[in-house]
Amino acid sequence: MAAQKGSAFLLKISDGAASPTYNTVAGLRTTQMSINGEAVVITSKDSGGWRELLSGAGTRSVSVSAAGIFLGSAAETQIRGNALSGTIADYELSFDGGEKMRGKFLVQRLDYSGDFNGERNYTMTLESSGAVAQA
What we know:
Number of strands: 8
Largest sheet: 8 strands, antiparallel
CATH topology: Pnp Oxidase, Chain A
Helix content: under 10%
CATH architecture: Roll
CATH class: Mainly Beta
Strand content: over 45%
Shape: elongated
């Protein structure tokens, strides 16, 4: 597999239409994704002293964090509205190689900061709600 550009790792938010269009969240400088899983342990006396896990069981989730410069785009306004109302919305993560992942996410945290004579920055954390699938 060839190296991929981090600048092509994009976070997009759905416009909410029946046939959705995903709009890129502008101004992002960093994007990070974590796929998490909780294991169900089924170790017994028959396990020979080794831990055994039940495949396909447990809880899986995807966490996304991002940081960037506030540009006042429609996508940023939509994310802020979702954060204030606690709305779960459809998001897409797209990668340099053309792969995509889609799912419903809740804006868990949205922070704004800015220095005198500098740009306004923001950071956010999204947590999945339901399945996140490759698109």
